[in-house]
Amino acid sequence: MPIKAFSHRYFCNMNRKHFLKSLFLLPAGALAMQLKDFHKEASDFSASQKMPVLFIGHGNPMNAIFDNSFTRTLSDLGKRLERPNAVLVVSAHWLTRGETSVAVSPNPETIYDFYGFPPEMYQVKYPAPGSPATARELVQNVQSIQVHEDHEMGFDHGAWTILKHIFPKADIPVFQLSIDYNKPPQWHFDLAAELKKLREKGVLIIGSGNIVHNLRMMDFQKEAAQFEWAIEFDEFVKNKIASKDFQSLINYQEQGRAAQLSVPTNDHYLPMLYSLGLLDKKEEVSFTFETVQNGSISMRCFETAA
Question: Is 110 in the same domain as 74?
Fold first, then answer.
């Protein structure tokens, strides 16, 4: 076997057992060097400070190429965040039924999971590496269910349209966790708690969706008036997050007409419950951005307060 440097990406493409086995095929001097590099990388990864949790209301995919108050907020966010070892995204745009999957691809593709957009949208690439090793650590951490490995999933627009602004260099490993759409809100909130250990390993976890997301009622005019029911439900969620009444948010369907119109389907709402389920009891939340766009899309974002 030729002697070569084991980069982080190369390490991520191998499971620990195979990696260690391959090392012992090397000459003694090279073996010592590779083990030194391996232990350094493992040490760096585990010694990181606890990462915050984010929820990003990603809204219109066109935000990927827009320069507006929302995208500038994301850019500022990336500049002040501690650099993570990896990023895990729970996106409204990766739904599975009857199982939960995690992406283990070492080189995920940029997915254009929309149609009818301007040509420049399909030119955007987000070439960040995957993080198979971290994804498999997630599989080990989750005990309540079996999390399946997905070798083909790339970055859907719930991930790359926001990461393009937060981490524009695309040099931080990224992987995604699917949402089992057959499961109720409480199930997703509880599952999120099993992901907390990743925060201690330098993994930044982002829920990407929208609190209010009613495409049928959208007004595409630039200065579209905000629907009263959208404002009402968005403020309800804000107040419940601030008071840590997460159970009311899990049982959001009890909130009547405003909830029904704001969350006609909960694919965009569930990522928020993952972000809330990841919080420790004493952690406070700050709201990074808040407005209702196109009348019926809440762009509210929040993060754990420093």
Answer: yes
